[in-house]
Every structure is written in structure tokens, then in C-alpha cells.
Predict the 3D structure of the following.
Amino acid sequence: MALPNEKNKSAVLLIALLAGGMAAVTILSTLGIINQYIQSVMMSIGINIIFASSLNIVNGYMGEFSCGHAGFMAVGAYVSSVLSLILFTENKFTGGPLLPPQTAIALFPAVIIIGGFAAAAAGLLVALPSFKTRDDYLAIITIAANYIIMTAINNLEIVGASRGLMGMKGAIFAMSDLIPLPWVLLWIMAFVVICVIAIKRLMGSVLGKGISAIRYDEISAEIMSVDTNRMKLLAFMVSSGLAGIAGGLFAHMMGFINPQSFNIMKSTEGMVMVYLGGMGSLSGSVLSAVLFTFLLELLRPLQILKWVFIPLLLILLMQFRPEGLMGNRELSDMAVFRRFLGKGGTRAKEAPDHERVPS
């Protein structure tokens, strides 16, 4: 039987790595060792980890086929951006900021999370048709949702329509003026760990097992008393909400967004990362996000040709490695990591006297 202090060892390890990583990034940035370009790559990796992991809930764990995930990212990006502009900067909505700009250092996470809730509400609208559709039909619905969101934003003059929206950096500048740190990178690192732990907790719970049951056989899951409609609703809303968080962080990293930032190619990037890492593998999504971001940086000199290469990568992946890098396994399933986390070894730990089964 596992000891109580070992039960949450993975989560504690992630939090410890976060604290150490944030301290290291702060020191190295202050010393000028981590320049703006390296910071931008690290921020892109973090956003892609959240984006890919969120899509993996639906496409991997639940076994559905969502192709318009960038639409929910757009909802989170625009809602978070408008809130940030209204609360912390001079803007066209209210004129002056509603709050002192320095309060951004405490309220920024709330702004991002509210954007996530808005995206989750949009995910609800896609979850309802999913009750009676699967596979190709659901893919068509999600693609349509992506285009509906993009078209709606394109026609909203209040948020800049097709010209886009800018000014979100004002909140970041206010934080940096108060305490000169790479705030966007630090917040992205924090949200990456929070989102990864949240997904791991969800999929390891009873609700998560119900979501996974749909992947194997929805009818059998219903026979075994799984409320499949409720599970689909939960999966879509959590997945969309996390994508909205990624969108809010993306908007504040870039300082400018427009509807084309969240087109079908962005959704394709998410699918490439999910299938590259392995459907139903959280570790795979994290690894593939890192690899994919580095690949995009290597292909940057190709400019528009990289958008030919990315869909081609997805085709080749489906042909030669359909299970992805990790399949449905996690790093903790591998022997070397099990020993590191204290889950493996040649001998099991001896149980305390009061927990031994009498012979």
C-alpha cells in the first residue's frame, strides 16, 4: 500500500520544478543570459503545452474528433484582452483604466481565468450537438464552430474586426514597472503546471474514467451506468476552457491578435501535437508541444512553405506512426521514471504492522 506522502509525489515534483524554474528564469533573465528571443520560444512552448493538452481531453481520452479547437482559443484571447484593456490601460471602451494599472500584478490570473470560463461556455454550444454525433460528423461541427467564431469576430468593430486588437501589453508593462521581471513568461509557466496537474487529476478521477470509457465503446459505457452526455459536456467544457486560457496568454504574449491568429491552421497545429505525442497521453502532449515548437522555429526561414509541411507531417504521422510517440502511455509508466518517483523497484515497501493482512 502506498504511503500517504507518496500519493501526490508527481504533483509535488511538478510544483517544485515550477518554483525552481521560475527562480532560474528570473535570475537568468536579470543577468541577460535569457534574451527576448529565448523567452519568446519558451512562452510559445508553454502555450502549446496547454493548447495540445486541452485538445487531448477530447481527441485523445474521449476518442472524439474535434478539428476547430482554435476557435475556443480565440474566445479566451479576446475576452481576456478586452478585460485587460478595460481594467488596466487607456482604452476605447471606457477611456481610462477602471483600476490602477499596478493591480494587474494581482488580478492578471483572474483575467486569464475569466477568458477560460468564456471559452468553456462556447464549448458548451459544441458539446450539445455532440450528444448525437460522432467521428466525421462531429469534426464538421467543430470546424463550423471555428469558422462561426472567426466570422463573428471579423464583424465586431468594437474589437477591431479584421484589423485586430492591440494594447494588451499595457498590463504587462504595468507589472514590469512595479517589479522588473519577465512576467508573461512566469505566468505562462505557472498556468502550464496548473493546467497539467488539473488534467492529470481529472483523468485519474472517476469522472475521467467515465470520459475514457466513451473512447472504447459509448454503448457499453451507457450500459455500465456512465452518463455519456454528462461526460461529453464535462470534457468539451474543460477542454475549451483550457484552450481559452492558452488564448489569453497568447494574446498578452503577442500584444496583438486578429481573427486569422486562430484560423483552421491553428487548429491543425493542435491536432498535429496531439497525434504526434499520442492520443490519451498527457506526457505525449507535453513532449510533442516542445518538439513541435522547436520544429516551427527551424522552419521559420521557409515562411509560407512551413504551412505545407505541417499538414504533411500529420499525413505522414497517420501513415507510419498512428499511435504517436507515447501511444497512450505516460512517462510515469516507464521503468526509469517509476524508480525515480518511487513506484518501482525489485522489492515492494513493507507495510506498517497495522496494515498487514494476517496470514
User: Anything to note?
Assistant: The chain has two domains: 57-262, 264-343. Strands lie at 165-166, 256-257.
